[in-house]
Amino acid sequence: MSDENKIEPGDVPAFGGGRITYIKPTGDEEAHRLGLIPAGITLPPGVKLYVLHAVDGSVLGYTDAYASAYGAAVQNELTPVSVH
């Protein structure tokens, strides 16, 4: 994750005593809808981004590898949950 996508303390609400985040694989269409990639840029067929979301659904960051998204969550003391 780049510094511009760094998770700051307080960005993720506490849920059940812990800070939960979810990782969702996202394709080209959804990535455009979320504003993750600019108009006119497309992902190659079959490529996914892995988006780290707060419990409220807001985007905390994204990467092109699940392991990076998971690592970013753990590094920021979040409890990652995968959503397929």
Give a description of the structure.
With 84 residues, the protein is α+β, with helices and mostly antiparallel strands. The chain has one domain. It is built from two helices and five strands; from the N terminus they run ββαββαβ. The protein has helices at 28-33, 66-75; strands at residues 14-15, 18-26, 49-54, 59-63, 79-82. Strands 1, 2, 3, 4 and 5 form a five-stranded mixed beta sheet that branches. A hairpin with a 2-residue loop joins strand 1 (14-15) and strand 2 (18-26). It is globular and about 35 Å long.
Termini gap: 21 Å
Fraction of residues in β-strands: 25-35%
Mean pLDDT: 82
Element-by-element helix/strand order: EEHEEHE
Figure out the total of helices.
Answer: 2
What labels describe this entry?
alpha+beta; 19% helix; 31% strand; five-stranded mixed beta sheet; 84 residues
SSE arrangement:
Elements: E1 14-15, E2 18-26, H1 28-33, E3 49-54, E4 59-63, H2 66-75, E5 79-82
Parallel strand pairs: 2-5
Antiparallel strand pairs: 1-2, 2-3, 3-4
Gist of the model:
The protein is α+β, with helices and mostly antiparallel strands. The protein is built from two helices and five strands.
